[in-house]
Amino acid sequence: MELIIALISGALGGNAAGGLVKKIDQGTLINSISGIVGGGLGGTILGMLGAPEMAGAAGEAGGLDIGAIIGQVAAGGAGGGVVLAIVSALRGMLAK
Length: 96
Known about the structure:
This protein has 96 residues and is mainly alpha-helical. It has helices at 2-20, 28-48, 52-55, 66-95. It has 4 helices and no strands.
């Protein structure tokens, strides 16, 4: 469940980053795919950095307490925006 939350929030974060920063906008499909990848990576990295309760790996409710959900949404959204920026930079370099 935590991975699904991270993937969905990553897709939303990628599209939000593309909407806010027009320079990195790659269209809805690429924004979403980049966001999904970044969301998955963001949630995984959050767990590896020693924040398992925010990554959803701890808690009496199977990791679905409000803190875990907020952590997954934040990590997924941020990861989605970062991966979109990287994809945009790579596409810009390849286009030259």
